[in-house]
What does this fold into?
Amino acid sequence: GVKMADSAISWKKIYGLNRHFMEPVANRYFFCDVQELDITDAQAVEEYVKQNGINVIVNCASYTAVDKAEDEAEIAYAVNHKAVAAMAKVAKDNDAVLIHISTDYVFSGEGDRPYTEADVTAPINAYGRTKLAGERAVAESGCRSIIIRTAWLYSEFGRNFFKTMQSLTATRPEIRVVADQIGTPTYAGDLAAAIT
It folds into this structure.
């Protein structure tokens, strides 16, 4: 599955045909976390991709602590922009495809309808600004790419709004939640299926 968490990354190699012999070969997948590959180290990313012959990179890494990103903007920028720019360059240099997971935080949050890819971006916080910078780095690199903007990601793993609400409703007779946010919850398994 896809692991969405701070400093988590999923690399994926998909083969349809062996480039040299035009024969079908099996898919191979590489899943790395920060202990195995520091994605903010451009040289390490380049070496990893070349060493493993990767031709599709799925970037699920993100600094996702929205509120903390204001105080830790440098870290958020390193993961959400600098690392993405490095992956985009590696993808371009190695004729690989980069599938980059982004967020609806690249928008202002105003309005009363779902956003489309044609809507104007206007992030209102450090997290959104760093994610938009990552998107722009991908677009400007010239690599073959797909950018997927997702929102309110949830699964049975990690911390997320769905699990918090599930826990609270099981332990309290009444709960209070903000009523000024509109979102589109996305099941991580559905996102993973769409990517594959």
In short: The mean pLDDT is 85.
